[in-house]
Amino acid sequence: MSDTYIHVKPAIEVQFQKCMERGRVLFFSAPCGFGKTVTAEKLIRQTGEKYRSVSGDRVPFEQLIEDPNWKILFVDDLQMMQEEKDLQALCSLIRENPDRRFILASRGLPPGCLMAFQYTGLMSVLHADVLLFDREDIRKLFQEWEVPVTDSELSGVTKESIGHPLGVVITIRHMAEGQTFGPELVAGAFREVFRYFETAIYKRFDLNIRRFLLELAPFEQFDLDMARIVSGDPRVGEMLDWLQRNTTMLRYDETQRFHFWPQFRAFLMWEMDREYPEEKKKTLYSRGGMYYELKEDFVHAMDCYIRGGDHSKVSELLIRSAELHPGMGHYYEMEKYYHSLPEKEILASPALMQAMSMLCAMEMDYEKSEQWYEALKQFAEQCDRMDAGGRQARSRLAWLDISLPQREVSGLTDTIPAVFRLLRGKEITLPPFSVTSTLPSIMNGGKDFSDWSKKDDMLYQVLRIPVEAVLGKDGVGLADCAIAESKFEKGEDITHRMLSLVQRAGEIQRNGTPDIEFAVTGLLIRSQMASGRSDDAVRTMEQLRTRFAENGLDRFLPNMDAMRCRMDLYVGDLDRADDWYREKAPRDLMKLNVMKRYQYLTQAMVELAAGKNQDVLLTLSSLELYCRTCRRHLDSIHLLIIRAIACWREKDKTWKTYLDEALDIAEEYQFIRPVSGYGAAVLPLLEECSRDDQDKWYLRLMAAVREQAAYYPAFLQPRTAPGESLTATELQILRLICADKSNAEIGKIMDIKLPTVKTHVSHILDKLGVSRRSEAKTAAKKRWLIPDHL
Asked: What residue stretches are annotated with the HTH luxR-type domain (predicted)?
């Protein structure tokens, strides 16, 4: 690698200059191929000082002491200096020559004897991260080689090389020779880097180290225990210590786990494919699976077992995971593992047939869901009455009868007492439930219980005991929370019911489940918001989220964050709501995840507040079929109200159809809150709507809507944005400004004269309410005028 073509990063030049002026030692610590040697030599030559260059395995200390002329000593491959006496001799040379400078390059970390120089500020260490090239470094290197490169090619080189200097230089050399950047060139560059690694590093290791590296290469990260299990070598601690002292290819993070540099791991995988037969590779993955299984990290364990071809272990872990993490969310998280199983494997297990029936239902493949249900039913019928397998199958059929989203809620009034009788007779034992599916609601959790709301008082009396018995821990507090939520949705005062539920909080935490606790707390938060006490609601949410996060209940956090986003929209904290939208909103419309419907609706609300009405309609479109098929009445009301507001703002007359449909559903169940919660956003639509003003329910609804509009007058109101008045040309120029294009470059791209560009830029800044180009990007992003990646 000729130093003629080495681009030295400004940050490295600064460190080098500091060392020359007031330091004593500059230490380059990076793996092979990072350009340590050529970078150091180029910097040294640029000083014009006399220097000596030596290798770490043969430093002529006596000659250096006797020679008075050199000013800079460059020791390359310092990791080869293994003798303690040589290291001490180097330290003495540094201490006794304060006017001389020492540049050291190593594939390992600084030896312990040199650390004293770092502690006293006399030695600076440049790690691999500093030596990596960024996009601008790579662009400058292309310029130095005088090789033309397009923006897309530059992005491709940056992505494929991840800034590894040797990989970048090899790629540029091939392009200088006339090759076109693409998969073939990338593959060739990788092979060339790998051959270099093989000669310069790998073949210099003894056979035990080579074997150790290859056996750990399949795993992105590992700890000492995993290294022992996978390699089966009792000396793994010694080998890891040696690798850390003598190389920097292995990194150690704050969670006490090791991982290879990406380029070196790719090389090891390449080497493993050449050296190891398929069976040996499968054995390694199976050992990795065993380690993760012992840690109860079932996801990583199943990844390993799949790669090891052990489907029976995947089946076993899926069943264990479902028992540890009840609820429909588990099936989404494990979807790819269930689908990886052969059908024969599934048909042999009642637990897996139950899982497939539920998973297919969640994927909206209801026909396939019922096929798996029938397969489970046939399995139960073929078993003897006393057969444990048949008992398990009947138990899981009962679970599906209660849980499948396509089953009518009205049928549960017969199903639950029947299941209760079977439980009392010890004919079945139900698998764990998750009634809420991690949502802050029982009425609108795993199922929509709107139909029960029509007779909530009667059903509470009749079903409370069997429901709590059937659901076990998930039944603690459920009935009281459900009836309170039913009354709340109808617009009734639930203060006394909430007092009772809050008093039971300790019991729910001790004897119940986090699902019910979230449902109860979610209802408390909604009632606080509905009464205008937003500060209390925010505190309640923050306390709950902190506690759940500390207890490792991460599955609830996405819906908690969505709920907090809605609260931000109510109080007008649009910047915080935008942060949620950019960082946490689902925004994957091509594959509906029904478990995220609360988040989809929240996403649509943020888009409504941003004036992105067409995006609102697109977001909601994926939910419509699911809400209709599974009779999700409460979700349907929210969907229709949000859609009506978006259409009304777009002056699309279909808004009234959507609003009427939402009101019809709400009136059927006497619901108030699902509509009144939209307050100021829905009020103008209701005022235009011609409904019977004498209708008692409608009068109550309008009063509740006006109350919410008074509490939160800015809720979902389209923000006033000066940028909305930008013309199409100005929007194009704004994007170029935000891409850091100069006025001259903008003129060339847009094919307009420079004075015209300046006029447009001036108008754009005025409309954005800023005075400088540097402020335009921030202002434009806040007004949703440019995408986040610019």
From this structure: 719-784
Q: What span, in angstroms and rounded, lies between the C-alpha atoms of 781 and 778?
A: 5
Q: Which residues of 692-721 are buried (b: 16+ CB within 10 A; e: fewer)?
A: eeeeebbebbbebbebbbebbebbbbeeeb
* Residue that the structure tokens 């992003």 belong to: 781
Which residues neighbour 339 within 8 Å (Cβ) at sequence distance 6 or greater?
none
The closest alpha carbon to 210, from 288, 267, 153, belongs to 267
Distance, in Å, from the CA atom of 450 to the CA atom of 486, rounded to the nearest integer, reads 8
Mean pLDDT of the chain: 88
Is the pTM higher than 0.70?
no
Strands 250-252 and 258-260: antiparallel
Q: Which amino acid is at 593?
A: N
In this predicted model, what pLDDT tens digit does every residue of 517-531 receive, in sequence order? 999 999 999 999 999
The C-alpha atoms of residue 379 and residue 384 are separated, in whole angstroms, by 10
Contact 61, 52 (CB under 8 A): no
Q: State whether 601 and 648 are in the same domain.
A: yes
Give tens-digit pLDDT for 425-457.
666 676 766 778 889 999 998 888 898 899 888
Closest C-alpha to 537, from 563, 555, 505: 563
The conformation of residue 4, written as its DSSP 8-state character, comes to G
Query: 789 or 620: which carries more pLDDT confidence?
Result: 620
- The set of residues, in sequence order, having a beta carbon less than 8 Å from that of 202 and lying 6+ positions away, is 210, 213, 267, 271
Q: Which two tokens stand for residue 744?
A: 């001259």
Q: Both tokens of residue 772?
A: 């400088």
287 Cβ contact list (under 8 Å, min separation 6) = 229, 230, 232
| pLDDT tens digits along 280-308 | 999 999 999 999 999 988 889 999 999 99
Residue 312 lies in a domain: no
Tell whether 494 and 540 lie within a shared domain.
yes
* CA atoms of 467 and 528, how far apart (whole Å): 28
In terms of residue numbers, what domain contains 526? 350-555
Contact between 733 and 746 (Cβ < 8 Å): yes
Q: How far is it, in rounded angstroms, from Cα 343 to Cα 340?
A: 9
Residue partners of 83: CB distance under 8 A and separation at least 6 = none
Same domain, 482 and 508: yes
Q: What gap in Å lies between CA 646 and CA 685, rounded to an integer?
A: 11
Same domain, 437 and 518: yes
Burial readout 105-139 (b: 16 or more C-beta within 10 A, e: otherwise): bbbbbbbeebeebeeeebbbbbebeebbbeeebbb
User: DSSP characters for 234-277?
Assistant: TTHHHHHHHHHHH-SSEEE-TTS-EEE-HHHHHHHHHHHHHHS-
Longest dimension (CA), the chain: 108
